[in-house]
Design a protein that fits this description.
alpha+beta, 14% strand, 6 helices
């Protein structure tokens, strides 16, 4: 029964984030009540997985992979460039509300690292210049 319960919590939290773009604090009690689990169990799941957001993100979400293969191929310097480019740190949103920067710990592109995901689009072999172009294109969108 425990694995089923855990999957139910994950599914409920994923659905909540899909609806609201993040998981509002108030949703934890609702999920707990619906699934007949404690709020602590739901909090344990949401705090374990980096995927879940606790605050509304910016218009565009930029995720830089921080897994070992990406780090070995320069993701830490790419992350530093990204922070400067967006004007915000990890788990933060730029002052204009356009970009949120998040770490991610595997995008499945280890052989083509470093990897970045912007919104729902994956980018392999990312470098500073390529990321700057991607961000510039997003800034030019209405």
């Amino acid at each position: 029964l425990e694995p089923v319960r855990g999957k139910g919590i994950l599914l409920a939290l994923q659905t909540t984030q899909d609806l609201f773009t993040y998981v509002p604090n108030e949703a934890l009690s609702v999920v707990a009540n619906v699934l007949n689990v404690t709020r602590a169990e739901v909090h344990g799941v949401i705090s374990f997985y980096h995927y879940f957001r606790h605050h509304k993100p910016g218009k565009h979400v930029v995720q830089v992979c921080r897994a070992e293969a990406c780090q070995a191929n320069g993701s830490e310097s790419l992350l530093a460039h990204t922070q400067t480019l967006l004007g915000c740190g990890l788990h933060e949103t730029s002052a204009d509300g356009r970009f949120t920067l998040e770490p991610v710990y595997c995008l499945g592109l280890c052989a083509s690292s470093p990897a970045v995901q912007v919104n729902d689009k994956l980018f392999a072999r990312m470098d500073n210049a390529k990321l700057s172009r991607v961000v510039a294109e997003l800034e030019n969108q209405p």
